[in-house]
Amino acid sequence: MSKDIDRIEKELERVVFSKEEILSHASLQLLQSGGKRIRPVFVLLGGKFGNYNIDQIKNVAVALELIHMASLVHDDVIDDANMRRGKPTINAKWGNRFAMYTGDYLFAQALQSITNIENPKAHQVLAQTILEVCKGEIEQIRDKYDFEQNLRCYLRRIKRKTALLIAVSCELGAIAAGAKEEVQRSLYWYGYYVGMSFQIIDDILDFVATEEQLGKPAGGDLLQGNVTLPVLFAMQEATLRDKITKVTEQTSTEEMSELIEGIKMSGAIEEAFEVSERYLQKALHSIKPLPRGQAKLALRSVAKYIGKRKF
Amino acid sequence: MSKDIDRIEKELERVVFSKEEILSHASLQLLQSGGKRIRPVFVLLGGKFGNYNIDQIKNVAVALELIHMASLVHDDVIDDANMRRGKPTINAKWGNRFAMYTGDYLFAQALQSITNIENPKAHQVLAQTILEVCKGEIEQIRDKYDFEQNLRCYLRRIKRKTALLIAVSCELGAIAAGAKEEVQRSLYWYGYYVGMSFQIIDDILDFVATEEQLGKPAGGDLLQGNVTLPVLFAMQEATLRDKITKVTEQTSTEEMSELIEGIKMSGAIEEAFEVSERYLQKALHSIKPLPRGQAKLALRSVAKYIGKRKF
């Protein structure tokens, strides 16, 4: 499948190219800053359960990666983030306004790519997803530094932020390949559970990975007021809760380091990891009804890889 | 047709409603701050040349108005605008980040609305248009305070900023109603020319209308560095050119008032108006091949109304 992944990589480069120099530059930087292209991989794997045709399915893969990229650019504006994967963000380099439009542009390119799929269901699923992702982003603004929020609130937010787009990657791959309805459903749920697990691991890594691995200082989520699963668990301890609820943008690096150590020592990381594991188990369970073969084995490996990744 | 317009109004209100209170509030304010709903009107008129079915066509009308609204919200961020139609803008009231997401949300709602149309051509046309509109917005950032730009540059920008969306409103109305291909084409060109004329008049009004009519101070475009048609014509006079090229965001209100008077006296307004008139003539010419009837008469009146509007 790596040949097809390369093809999507080239397609992405072609699509984001623009005569507008800064725009091309910004989009290409974003593209080259890596990312694991997990959405395209899931689209292709989903497609393997139907009539796999790379010329059709590449349009879905490209669209989903572009939507993901667009949401990253807009997220960085929201978070006032300076760095992404060790490089200055688009907003840091060219300003919020330009970042806003780069996001819009990538988003528009995504739409154009998906118009190559004729099945109206594909458009409906995508539009609904984008709407939910948007709602999630607005929730994320609303919930910042809200230390009264509960687990349900967090789970709903990461569903919209991450899990939905992965669920839909799997589903749309199957839709574009004309796979059966039950297969589409199973793949959706697989992607949903994998996505939940993926985001929880991401939120854990923000505490336990090194600055080098993250490309930005550890604990950045908490500093920005994003209340993630390890934070929710850590707050069950009164002393930690006290310190955490006092975090603002102004909290010093020293205070943050100390707090991060406290969170790591509290067992919150392990608890969060257990939740992630439970989602992975559900993901593996979801694909049981799918026909055996290479694609199913690959889905299983991907789920396991996500559970183990260290950065 | 006013019954159908009312219906679209209600549909718009329903669609922008969200459980997220601020979001609902912001979108409703935007909706209620008026606007002439010219895009929905053009969609409905376009639909009259085919199999007019309001239940189908309303989805196109709603989508186009929402895309227009979304682009206004993002434009206000770009322009750092404080007022729109006499009310504080979303960015002024709730900040740039929230405005960015309100735009994204409206945009997503637009996409969802259009998925109710099954014809793939509708999706292709819309995606292509959104892409062009985005490019136009990036050009608008790039071209700010660039007093070396020429007429072609201006015309390309207003095409992307305004004319395309109006052209596509007419065309998509016809597409959704299953009108003939030639009819779709004629309507597209009618909308394109009307849109060009409409934007030129808008750019003229920014100089000649009162602050009360505009809901913001006159000459605001120039102050923000938007080089419009009256400015381009005024710059043909050396003394005016000299003053205009010195405009920055810091230019005082007194200097601006003097400059606006100078531009008004130079004949630039009249020249710009003539260009608008020529576009209107082309619009009227474009609909000649269309079948006679109420809808055609309405298209003619709308074009004439646009040519005469005073604010």
From TrEMBL, chains A, B:
One of its GO terms (molecular function) is heptaprenyl diphosphate synthase activity. It catalyses: 4 isopentenyl diphosphate + (2E,6E)-farnesyl diphosphate = all-trans-heptaprenyl diphosphate + 4 diphosphate. Its cofactor is Mg(2+). PROSITE patterns: POLYPRENYL_SYNTHASE_1, POLYPRENYL_SYNTHASE_2. Pfam families: polyprenyl_synt. The keyword Transferase applies. GO terms for biological process: isoprenoid biosynthetic process. Keywords: Magnesium, Metal-binding, Transferase. It comes from the Bacteria. InterPro entries: GerC3_HepT, Isoprenoid_synthase_dom_sf, Polyprenyl_synt, Polyprenyl_synt_CS. The keyword Amino-acid biosynthesis does not apply. Its EC number is 2.5.1.30. Belongs to the FPP/GGPP synthase family. Supplies heptaprenyl diphosphate, the precursor for the side chain of the isoprenoid quinone menaquinone-7 (MQ-7). Heterodimer of component I and II. This is Heptaprenyl diphosphate synthase component 2.
